[in-house]
Amino acid sequence: MQKNFKPHPNSFKNTFCIFNEVLPNEIQGLKKQFESKAGSSYYYTEEGMYRVSNHWGRLANSKWRLVAREPETESKTKIGFAAWSEFHPDNAEEKLYYIEADYTKNTVNYQHKNNPLYDGKAILRTSFETTKRIKQIRNLQQLTSWAKYFDDDIDVLRKKIISELIYSEKTLDEIKREI
């Protein structure tokens, strides 16, 4: 029988968290302890939280992301787990976020400075600044029109410009002028 573990209701306000997708057998036998108005279900354990939901990302006053299993499960509703230590404070004023680019998968995402994998090299930014940079990086990744005035290989250019956007305070225009 599951011991009834219940965190403080305000524990999750203004938090950033990355959940990892798990299979349904992970929550078998657990008691649902909360259901949101949007239909997400929550299961709390001493180790962390399971969330069953069909929507992830910005949630009210928090930023919760799901890392999907590979290969991805077919269901639109996903089950994610996060340890209590994975919940980090979030606010609009502090420089809490850094950007990571995966050049192989051609993706970009933001991470919290409290991530144990943060090496201190990527520039920390506010959530607004981070969102702006990510949009620029995604445009560089997905579009080609920006590269027509350059002679270099587009993949080399992309990596060079994206790295500068992540590891410096330079604007996109400043970076392009220097190339």
Structural description of this entry:
The chain is an alpha+beta fold and 179 residues long. It contains 3 helices and 10 strands. Strands 1, 2, 3, 4, 5, 6, 7 and 8 form an 8-stranded mixed sheet that branches. A hairpin with a 5-residue loop joins strand 2 (34-35) and strand 3. Helix 1 (127-142) runs antiparallel to helix 2 (154-167). The chain is elongated, with a radius of gyration of 19 Å. The model has no long low-confidence stretch (mean pLDDT 93).
List the helices and strands and how they pair.
Layout lengths: L14 E8 L11 E2 L5 E4 L3 E6 L3 E3 L2 E6 L10 E6 L4 E2 L7 E6 L4 E6 L14 H16 L11 H14 L4 H7 L1
Helix pairs in contact: 1-2
